[in-house]
Amino acid sequence: MRALLWATVASLASLTATASGCRTYDPVAETPHRTVRNLPEAIRLILAENSNTKVFAVGEYHPTKRSANVPAPSTLFRTDVLPVLDLVAKHLVIESWIDDGSWSAPVSALARQVTLAIDRPQNAALMPARAPAFSSMALHLLQMTPIEQDSLLDRRGRVDFFRLLTTITSKLGETTLRTVERFPTDAVVVYGGALHNDLFPRWPFDIFSYALPLQQKLHGNVVEIDLVVPEIAANNPATANQPWLALLPAAGPDHVVVYQPGPHSYVIITQTTDPRNPATIPLGGLRMPLKAFE
Q1: pLDDT digits over 193-243, tens only?
Q2: Is 259 exposed, middle or buried (0-12, 13-18, 19+ CB in 10 A)?
Q3: Structural contact between residues 50 and 223, judged by C-beta atoms closer than 8 angstroms
Q4: Residue 110 belongs to what H/E stretch?
Q5: Rounded to 10 degrees, what is the CA torsion of 15, 20, 23, 25?
Q6: C-alpha to C-alpha distance for 284 and 230, rounded to whole angstroms
Q7: What pTM does this model have?
Q8: 161-182 vs 109-117: helix crossing angle, rounded to 10
Q9: Backbone angles phi and psi of 171, in degrees to 5
Q10: For residue 130, is pLDDT > 50?
C-alpha cells in the first residue's frame, strides 16, 4: 500500500514538473491564421479559394468618434476591396435607407438619429455613397419609404433598434436575392454591417443575418468577408467574444491577417496605424502583449 502511495506521489510530481516546463502560451500562434502583404492581396486570396461565387457579403465593424484618426472600413472598402471585386462582380448592394434612391438627398431623420445613437462620426453613414465613383458596378440601394422609416420609431419618436435591425436584414436579403435572380450570370457585392453578413451567427443574433438564409437558397455560393480595423475592433464591446480577438495583436503596418471561421467565411484584420510595435495594438488605453499568458 505504501509503495502504491509513493508511486502515485512520484507520478504527480512528474506531471507537475512537465506542466511547469510547458512553453509560453501564445494566443496568436494558437489561432490558425494567414498573413499577406495588404488588403487587395487578401481579397485576391479569397477569390482564388472561392470560384463561382454569386454573392460577396462584405461587413464592417462601424467606426466611432474615438476611432476618427484611423482609416474607416468604408474607405478601405472603396480603395482596396472594390477595385479587386470589380473584376468579378457587376452589382453593388449597399446598406442604405435613403428614401428616394439618391445619395445626393438629405439624410433622413431616421438615419441622423441612428448615426448619433451608435456614436458614429457624422459623415460615416454617407461614406459608402462615393463607392460607385470607384467602381463600374451597378448600385442598388435598399428601398425604404418614408412611411416605413416612420414605422421604425416608437411612440416617443425614438428608434426601435430591434425592429430596425430586422428590417435591414430582411431588405438586404430581399434586394440581393432579387438582383441575383434578375441577373443570374452576374456576381453581387453586398456592403453593410458585420452583424448582417454572418454565415455562422450565434444565437440570438442569427435573426439579423441575411447571409445564412441566402447561402441556403443559393446552394453555398455566398462568401462572407468581414473587414476588421484593429483600432476600431479593440474598442468595440461587440468584438469581446469573437474567436479572432486573439489575433488583433498580430496586426502590423506592413501586413494584414486573414482568419477563417468556417467554409466560405473570412475575417480580414487590416493594417494597423500603430508604428511603435507591430505585435501590439492599443486596447482602450492599455496594450495587449503578443504573448499574453505565461
Answers
A1: 898 999 999 888 899 999 999 999 999 999 999 999 998 888 777 787 888
A2: buried
A3: yes
A4: helix 109-117
A5: 100
A6: 12
A7: 0.78
A8: 120
A9: -70, -35
A10: no
